[in-house]
Design goal:
It contains eight helices and seven strands, in the order E-E-H-H-H-H-H-E-H-H-H-E-E-E-E. The chain is α+β, with helices and mostly antiparallel strands and about 230 residues long. The protein folds into two domains: about 120 residues, Tyrosyl-Transfer RNA Synthetase, CATH 1.10.240.10; about 90 residues, Roll (Structural Genomics Hypothetical 15.5 Kd Protein In mrcA-pckA Intergenic Region, Chain A), CATH 3.10.290.10. The strands form two sheets. It has a five-stranded mixed sheet. The longest helix is centred in the middle third of the chain and has 29 residues. The radius of gyration is 23 Å and the shape is elongated. The N terminus is likely disordered.
Amino acid sequence: MAFRDEANIERGDKVEGAYGLTFPLLLKSDGTKFGKSEDGAVWLSPKFLSPYKFYQYFFSVPDAEVIRFLKILTFLDIEEVVALKDEIKKPGYVANTAQQRLAEEVTQFVHKEDGLAEALKATEALRPGAETKLDWKTIEGIAEDVPSCSLAYDEVLNLSLVDLSVSSGLIDSKSVARRLLKQGGLYMNNSRVDSENKRVEAADIVDGKVLLLSAGKKNKVLVRIA
């Protein structure tokens, strides 16, 4: 017996003579299932979960789960999956290599080439020091994933980066901002700022709308220009 949907059959009706395959629930390593009732649900629709977030979810799965997901969720040859499994155990393995393969395959399957390209571009946009040219659409694509604030154009233009780092909430104090800047850990639009005298210029405001500030690799703030 199996279930199927047709115009003359209500969902859930049993159809005599029909056969189908069953598939076990996809569980996390802690035994909980994927689903809209769970925290961190993985939505297939980009309306509920952007291609970037979708990609990042699978890029972040633990090593203990990635091989199982590669087997279940992708169409990769089993030989390639086994090779990735062996690589994880070897010295010198580059972290998240298997996860990257998983994220690319699943994102491309669900969101097609354009969605994968969007996810990769947004991922690169969040990496300080990246050479990818930022645009307003790419930065807005990650807006839900980083803190943000809105400041008037006149408030931002010619403001020192040290002052902006504090007023935007990126850093608690000017002294901390100056120290981080001297250590090479302060970025604006992915470009490291080396001068304490750096002030925001019109050309720094991406498409006249936004700025992306970073303190180190993880702490970021999106500044929307009102």
